[in-house]
Structure formats: structure tokens, C-alpha cells
Amino acid sequence: MKRTLISTAIALISGLAIHAAVQAANDEPIQPIKPPANINLGMVELGKKLYFDPRLSKSGFISCNSCHNLSMGGTDNIPTSIGDKWQQGPINAPTVLNSSLNVAQFWDGRAADLKAQAGGPIANPGEMAFSHTLAINVLESIPGYVREFKQVFGKDKISIEEVTLAIAEFEKTLVTPNSRFDQWLLGKKDALTADELAGYKLFKESGCVACHNGEAVGGNSFQKMGVVEPYKTSATAGGRADVTGKDADRFNFKVPTLRNVEMTYPYFHDGAANTLTEAVDIMGRLQLGKKFTKDENAKVVAFLKTLTGDQPNFALPILPPSTDKTPRPTPFAK
Asked: Which CATH number is 140's domain given?
């Protein structure tokens, strides 16, 4: 009886400690990343294949993973991506990691969700340069895909609707929990160094958290680039104005997530900042009217590096082989 009471007391104390840790985390402007929930595993496995399949592009060379490389923080680490026929893209590829937490997709928010986003690059002449019809023709010529789509969706015909649903379901799994900062939020007080904690304090007190907050540390609002000082760039992207047509929305971009930010260089919509040190300096001056000292900048950068979480880790999918009826890619077509 005594042993049972002791065990019950220990369990109660442990439960209270966990509750206190969660409550403390909720009091911060940033919350821990949660694992994905309500995932359709069959759809995820199909979406994973489609994500890595370059046959959804005209060249047969470009896949979703080309610009959103899961070995490189979910991006391609170049200022703007390379599209069909080596075309230079107009904007920096945002990371796909934790993208399910975004208020909308793309820098200008033109896609409401991951499903709406997934179909865009396939038919974009500057990206994968295919068409939805041709992409479906390719998939329907591959028996392995026909069988898997039937198993997952229960339909004999494949449509772009199912393709984008499957890719989006896979992308929902690409969250990165368990960063050192998340561990600190959940009560592991030795997870961060003194400099990293000082950087977080500066991050909060300087006003960075006004835009970079929540689970994704960003991604949940649109803000003007260049509040205190104008941002100078040769890039032509107009931000939300390209979607709404309103001049008031010019240079309003979706706030990028800072999760895994040490991996997602170069920074900003034009990829103009090559290092975190440079990005912190520019954002401090242009957005907050604050000139960080060298020491302050280093501490903020140290904090930002604690936001790197567990990266997606899975076996590469084996793609079903093409058949004699599968349309062949045209990588060098003029």
C-alpha cells in the first residue's frame, strides 16, 4: 500500500512538472513543433514517390525535390532556383519543411494550402514546364502508379486532384520537432548556452517576435519588406500586390519560417543575404530601426541556430518503371 502511494505521488509530481513545462512554453511567443497528426499513410507513400519523380517535368530531370531538397533543409541553397532549360527563377525557393504551418503558400501567398501549391510548379513554364494533362498521361502509362492510385483513392482514373492531394499529404509529414530550442521550451534548461539565451532575449526585446512567432517562428502573416528603410533589390517580385493588384500590398511578403534557418541560406525573397549575420543586420536596420553590435548579432545568430530540428529521415522511394507507352522526356527541346 505504501509503495503504491509513493508511485502515485511520483506520477502526480511528474505530471505536474510536464504540465508546468507545457504551460511555460505556451507563455513564450514561440511554441514547440508538434508531430503531424491525422495522416493518411497510404497517401503519404504515394506522395513521397511523386515528390521525387522527375517524370512530372517536361525535361524528365526536375522534381519537387530539385528546388526543395530534403537533404538541404528543404530548399536548394541558391538565390533563385533553376527551371526548365536552365531558366533562372524569379524568386528564392522557400523551404518545404514545416510548410504545413504556413498561413498560405509561396512568398506572395497565391496558394491557399499545400494542395493548391503542389500543382503550380508542374505547369509553370519556368519550372517543370509540363502540363497537368501530360503529367497525368505519364502516370497513367505506368502500371505501378495506376495500381497505387487505385489502392489509395479507390478510383480507376488518375486526376491532378489526386496527384496534388498525395504530394500535400507527404509534405504535411515534413515537420522538424525536437530542436534544442524546443527542448528548452519544454523544460530542459541546459539545452541552451548563455549566449544562445542572450540571443533569444535580444530577439524578443528588439521586436523580432512581432513577425517571427508561433510554432514555425514565422509563416503566419504577411509583412512589408523595408519598414524603417526601403529594401533595395533588382528582383521584380512585388509580393502580395502581384496577387491582389493593390499598390498598398507592394513588397508585402509572407514572413519566412526561421525553423532550420541555418540550413536555408541564402535569405530573403531574392536570396540576396548569403549569411545569417548579414540577414540579421539587414532585418534589424530595415524592419526595426536597430543596428545590432557585432556581439549582439552573434548572439542572435547563435539563438537562431538552436531552431534546427530533427530532419525528415526515411528510405528513398523506389519509383515504378516507365513502360513502352510512357511519353519520353524532352530535356533538350527548343
From this structure: 1.10.760.10
